[in-house]
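As noted in the main text, all predictions were made from sequence alone. Below is one such record, for Endonuclease MutS2.
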Amino acid sequence: MLYPKNSVDKLGFTEVKELIKAHCLSEMGQQMVDKIQVMSNFDQIYKFLNQANEFKNILVNDAALPIHHFFDIKTLANKARIEGVFLSEEEFYQVQASLQTVFAVIGYFSEREGLYPNLEALFEHLPIEKAILKKIDAIIDPKGKIRPNASRDLQEITSGIAKAEQEARRKIDQIFKNASSSGWTADGSLTIRDGRLCIPLLAENKRKLKGFIHDESASGQTVYMEPEEVFTLNNRVRDLEFERRREIVKILTALTNELRPYTPLLLSYHSLLTKLDFVRAKALFAIDVEAEMPQVVNEPKLKLFNARHPLLFLNFKKEQKTVVPLNVHIDEGTRIIVVSGPNAGGKSVCMKTVGLLQMMVQAGLLIPAAEASVVGVFKQVFVDIGDDQSIESDLSTYSAHLSKMKAFVEDANGKTLILIDEFGTGTDPQFGGPIAEAVLESLNHKKVKGMVTTHYSNLKIFASNTDGIENASMLFNNVEMKPLYRLEIGKPGSSYAFEIAQKIGLPQNVLNLARNKISEGQKKVDTLLVDLEREKREIFETKQKLDKQQRRVNELQAENEKLKSYLEENKKVLIREAKDQAKNIILNANKLVENTISEIKSSNADKETTRNLRENLNIELKKNTVKPEPVKPTAAADEELKPGDWVKLVDSETTGQVIELIKDNVVIAIGDLRTVAKKKRVVKVSKSAVPKEIRRTMNSHTSDFASFSPEIDVRGMRTEDALHSIEKLFDRALMMGFNSLKILHGKGDGILRKMIRQYLKKYEQVDRMEDEHADRGGDGITYVYLK
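Prediction:
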C-alpha cells in the first residue's frame, strides 16, 4: 500500500517507468510497463527480479536473443475467432513473423536449458505447434504476399492474367509503332490513364484510330487513346483480376478457418512475447543505470551499499559527472534515521534514493546498488515530501502535513516504511518542533522504520537519546563551504546557516545581529556540531592514509615472506648438489686407491713402479678436489656489470641475474621476485658457479619477461573470456613489475568497456584508468595504471 497515491510521482517512480517504456519494442510491452506496481508478495518480487537479472546476463554475456518481430497477435486471434471473418495477407504475415520469433526464442532457451530457469518458466508447458506455421507458410511468402500457387485456381488465374497482359502489351506496341510511322502520334511514349495503357495521339488524328479516349492534354492538342483491340484484352485482364481477388478471399477464409482452433494457443504465444518484451526493457534499463540484483529477504529491513539515485545517475552521466554513493541501513536496531545537515546538502536526495530503490525492488526492478545490498519487503510505504497545500480542500501547507501525520500515526506498523521530508516545518518552530517530536516518538513506539529529514535541534537531541532512532548527517566541508553529499550515520549535522549566509554575501552587520539574537545554548550546540564534523573528517582522512600505509606494509611483508621462502629453497638445492658432488668425488677416489693398491701388489712392490703409481694417484686426487673460487667484489673500475650477468649478494648466499642497471643500483631477478641493490653490495660470479636448477628457472623467467607485452586486444570476445584474459595479463604484469596495461576493447555500445572497468576497480593495485587520446582510439582503448 502506498500513501498518498502520488508517492510514485514524488519519488520519481513514474519517470523510471517512462524510461523503461522507451526500451519496449511493442505497444503490448509498454502497456505492461504501465501496469507495474509496488508489490508486497515476496515470491512474486523474487521471481520478477530474477527474470530481469537473467535477461540482463543474456544481454551482457550471451549471444543475442532472436527477437525480431513483436506484433499484436492477440487482436488478430480475437478477430479470427469470429465465424465468417478472415485475416488479410498483412495480418497473416504478422502472425507468421510472431510465430517464427516465438519458436526461435524457445529454441534459444532449449539450447541453454537450466541456465535461465526463471525465464524458461515463462514458456514452461507451452506447446510448440509448428503446424500453424506450416499452414501459413504454404499460403503466405516471406514478404507477406500470397503465393501465386496457393491454390490451383489461383495459379491458373494468375497465369491467365500474365498471358492477357502480355498479349495486350504486344498488341498496343504494334499499333503504337504503326501510328508513329504514320506520324499520327504526339511526342512521347505509351502512358497510363485511368489505369489503362494509352497511345498519345495528335488531336487531328484521333479519328484515324478506333478506340476509347481516356484523357487529353491541357492544351487539347494531344489525346490519350486506348485502341479498340487492346480495350477488349484489358477488360479480360480486369475480369481475371476480380476473379483473383475472389479466389484470394476464398483462400484466406479457408486459412482463417484452419487457424481458428489454435486461437487459445496464439493468445499464449502473445502473452510470452509481451512478457519477453517487458522483461527485456527492464534489463536494458538496468544496464543503463548499472543496476544489480540485491539480496532480497522477506522481512522489513534494508541495507544499501554504494546506492545511487537512478535518475540523478543518468543526468550526471550525460554531463560526465559521478554520483556520490549512499551507504545506509535500516533494521530492528536502527529503525528510524533522522538526517540533518545544511540546505542543498543532499538530505532530500538521500531520502528519495532510499524510497525509490525500495519501490523499484518491490516492483521487480534491479537497482543501482552493490550486489551485497540487502533489501526487504514492506507492506506499506508512507511518504510526505513536498508541499501538498490545496485551495479546493482548504488545506494550508502545515495542515496538509498534519493530515498525513495523522494517517501515519493511525495506520503505520512494524512493516511500514515512512519517508518524511523537512519534518515539522510549516508552522512556528516553537510548536512545530514538539509536535514533530511527539509524532516521531509515537511512530518509534509502533516499531515503524524509515527516514526523516529535519533542521530542528529538539529532534536531533531526541534521536540521540532514544533507542531505535539514529542521528545522521550530510557531510559539509566548512573550509571550502561546499557540501560533500555523503551520509554519515551516528551524529547530527549542523545546518551551517551562518556559514552559508556568509558565503552568499549577506552583510556582516546583519550576520552579527542575527548571532546576537540566538541563545548561547544554541550557539554552543551549533558550534559543537561544526567542530565535531571537522574533527570527524580529519579522522577519516587520517584513517584512509593509515589504511593505505598498512596495505603497503602487508604487501612488503608478503614479499619478504616469499623471498625468504625462495632463499630457503635455494639453500636446500645448493646443499644437495654439494653433497652429491662430494659423494661422487669420494667414490672416484676410493676406486682410484683400490686400483693403485691392486697394481702395486701385482708388480711385487717394485720401487720404480710404486713411485710412478703414487705420482699418478696424487695427480688424479688433485683433479677431483674441488677448490672454492674466491669471490671478489666487482669494482666498477675493473669490470662493469651488464644485464645478463650472474651476481651474489655480499651479505647472503642469494644468487640472481642482472636485469637492469640504474645509476649505482642494480635490478636483480631472483626467481619470480625482483629486487634492487647497490652495486657495492653485489659480486659477480661465473655462470658455471650457478646451480643448473637456478639457471633453468631464470632462463624461463627471463624469456617470459622478454616476451611479455603489457597490451591485449579483446575485441570480438565474449565478456567472460575477455575478463579471463585480462586477469591473466594483470597477474603477470604485477609479477614482472610493470606499471601500466593497454586494453583494446573497441567502442561498440560500450558494454564491454563498462564491464572491464567495473571488473578492474575491485583490485586495490589499480591506481586509475583512462581513455586513449581521441585521435588514437579514444574510449575504444583503456589504459590501466598500477600503483
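The radius of gyration is 44 Å. The first helix runs from residue 7 to 10. These features were considered when defining construct boundaries for the mutagenesis experiments described in Section 2.9.
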